[in-house]
Amino acid sequence: MTNQVFLALGSNLGQRQRNLDRAIAALGEIMVVQAVSPVYETAPWGVANQPDFLNLCLGGTTTLEPRAFLAACKEIERELGRAPGVRWGSRLIDIDLLFYDDLVLDEEQVAIPHPGLAERAFVLVPLADIAPDMVDPRSGRTIIQLLADVDTSAVRRAGARAAKRTGLEAFAWGARTYVMGILNVTPDSFSGDGLLARDEWLAAAVGQAQEFVAAGADILDVGGESTRPGSVPVTAEEELARVIPVITAVRQVVDVPISVDSYRAAVAEAALAAGADWVNDVWGLRMDPAMAGLVARVGCPVVIMHNRSKPKNVEQAERLGGRYVGVEYEDLMADVRRELQASIDLALGQGVKENQIIIDPGIGFGKTVEQSVRLLDQLDQFKPLGYPILVGPSRKSFIGYTLDLPPEERLEGTAATVAIAIDRGADIVRVHDVKAMVRVARMTDRIVRR
User: Are residues 182 and 142 in the same domain?
Assistant: First the structure.
């Protein structure tokens, strides 16, 4: 049985933001983190002569019963280095359980909801960001109503840390190719690199992210659901449990943009709050009607991809994996351009700015081998749309079926597709083999971008 929980986190010693990030990552081991508020800076509570705090709230679900969950939170505090101190004094990290479903519990060691909630602006302000209409079971009042009764003048938004990374202004489109490294937080990726199949998968994800950045990756793309032909969708809860801990942990150790590969607005919103900067929607904002509005509200870059994938068109081969067959277009290039434009118009109609948009023709997504080859060869036909172009050919089935090779042997085929994509106008290439493809991109840039 899953239970809804909300927590407040605070830190005023050491690297405060890093302390919060580490706590969120650790909490991901005992709960599914579904929402994280912005960070706020506030004056100390209780003991005045101490540094200012950074505070945030988060919400999610857990299968632990209340006392066990609270004990696990306190163990995380100890593991992260919190030492005993005076009441309301300085804290390396402080984790308070605010709500556990609508439970009201008053015991010597456990009080739920948190008894000081209604007085604390530094808790109510971030809590209102993620659960404004939640009802406090003690008072019967919503969080917004409680917030109206406190002075919030000393609670300051501390959100500048991520702002420098989120926009596309720093990208010199046309001057060079940017490389996006793929972090597949799945057990069943078609390419054989699913991180959930490894022991210590979270540490493996962080290590892979660091290796990718060291090898020259400009962007990291984190996904928690396999998109291989014939794959079975996972629930939003499972997707959150996979990607949020990874994004939170990776954000601590790299300073390149992180993209969340998801078509669900709830997942994207939680990922952005956890430290992601972009949204990569393989369904071009058409699967979840809330996604375009979220992107507009947050103001983040969004990759809009073309996709005509249908299970009925999938053919499986044990050695080569799945491919699409029998997919019909009246005019491949014109149809893909028209349907991409429809997704762009949807985005613009919801308030997404033109300078937030990147387009992806969706090679391999509802396209046969021959259609994928043609799409790559004629990629320059998408340049008149006026948006940066992302291409993701890495290890895909059109390479495997062309060369009769399984995914783990498609390095050279991927290198050829990356070079051709750059020659035909790609601005970003999304790849598994970052070190090798960075070299391919640099050499191809030297030839075609003189």
Answer: no
